[in-house]
């Protein structure tokens, strides 16, 4: 099994920035394959080894940020990025059933591997992985 190339860091917790401010998708709505709103991009996880975004954190539910649930979606699921929204190729229901992240877990690689498997994508640390066209960072 290949190793994760670098630690995944919250973009919110780093000094890293996107190449262009217009490319920062945090705060944009996330729309599912049917065009229905799932939630919004609350954060991005960046591979500190390659400085590439690997996952987006999608916050959904709750009221005014209270009671929101957060799930990770591989950026490989992004099909389009508009000025106000990020479109993905999965349904709202699929995203809602994604593996829950527990920050207290010891081995994150297992979680990330399960997450990529759940969404049906090869993990970014695997052989032959090609970085998707979106987003540009």
Please specify the SSE layout and strand pairing.
Blueprint: E1 8-10, E2 29-31, E3 37-47, E4 52-60, E5 69-74, E6 78-81, E7 85-88, H1 92-96, H2 108-119
Structure, described:
The model has no long low-confidence stretch (mean pLDDT 84). The radius of gyration is 14 Å and the shape is globular. The longest helix is centred in the C-terminal third of the chain and has 12 residues, at 108-119. With 137 residues, it is α+β, with helices and mostly antiparallel strands. The protein has one domain: SH3 type barrels (Roll). It is 12% helix and 29% strand. The chain is built from two helices and seven strands, in the order E-E-E-E-E-E-E-H-H. Strands 1, 2, 3, 4, 5, 6 and 7 form a seven-stranded mixed β-sheet that branches. It has helices at 92-96, 108-119, and strands spanning 8-10, 29-31, 37-47, 52-60, 69-74, 78-81, 85-88.
From the structure above, extract its key features.
137 residues, alpha+beta, SH3 type barrels, 2 helices, 7 strands, Bac_photo_RC_H_C, PRC_barrel-like_sf, PRC-brl_dom, PRC-barrel domain-containing protein
């Amino acid at each position: 099994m290949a190793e994760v190339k670098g630690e995944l860091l919250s973009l919110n917790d780093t000094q890293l920035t996107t190449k262009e401010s217009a490319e920062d998708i945090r705060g944009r709505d996330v729309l599912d394959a049917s065009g229905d709103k799932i939630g919004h991009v609350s954060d991005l996880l960046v591979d500190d080894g390659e400085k590439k975004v690997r996952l987006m954190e999608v916050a959904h539910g709750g009221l005014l940020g209270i009671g929101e649930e957060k799930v990770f979606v591989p950026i490989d699921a992004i099909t389009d990025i508009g000025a106000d929204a990020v479109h993905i190729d999965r349904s709202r229901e699929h995203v809602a059933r994604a593996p829950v992240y527990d920050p207290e877990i010891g081995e994150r690689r297992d979680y990330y591997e399960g997450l990529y498997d759940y969404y049906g994508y090869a993990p970014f640390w695997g052989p032959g992985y090609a970085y998707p066209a979106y987003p540009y960072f």
